[in-house]
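Q: What does the assembled structure look like for these inputs?
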Amino acid sequence: MKRVKYTIANWKMNGSKKSIKIIKSVANHIKNTSHKKSTVVICPPFPFLAEAIKETKKISFGGQNCHHLSDGAFTGSISASMLKSIGCKYVIIGHSERREYQKEQTEELNLKIKIAIKNNLKVIYCIGEKLSQIKIRNKILKNQLNSIPKQINLKKLIIAYEPVWAIGTGRTPTTNEINNIHQKIRILLSKKIGRTKSQGISILYGGSVNPANAASILNLNQVDGALVGGASLKSSDFSKIIDSYS
Ligand code: PGA
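A:
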């Protein structure tokens, strides 16, 4: 089964109302580029989503998080159905910054994935080890994959492998390591959901992807795209990454 390639921007808590111009410029680039090899998704902060969605159909949009319940007295939170209702197609779940600062763990993440998929959103589920966990990486990744609920529509699931120590640091594993780790993740997935189903799931790499290293990472046979933080805040850099697939 041919897997879909994705180039996904995670703006995190960056940008302003004026950042809509980044979206305009990336949309314009996609319109004119001959290298349209991946589905492009941008996940801006919540306040900019609705306007971004209205701006272009060339790009899909996603939230950076959603609550694990459908509604209620949860000040400051956003539900999966709210994201869906304004036209979002994707949501990032389990990003290491939320695991670290919001203490999100297995059970909550399991519910988030469930409710997002129930609301017809595609989930970009992030996993990855910290620097201190490199030696037990397999165990960490296996535990994190345990948050994936049973009996979900697997067509709605995308995995992003993001070593925490590579995020925003300018450091990445070697391309060999990335390819091997992605292969291991697919083996772990296949033990969980079966070989055939695991073959259909896109596994993206994230962590210091930039225009200079994108081609060497994105064209690895086990890598199905990228989740890009810092380099997605500059339209020219993000556009170069979009063009890096051969
Ligand atoms: P980075 O972030 O590209 O700035 O390293 C990636 C991410 O956290 O998704």
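The chain has a mean pLDDT of 96.
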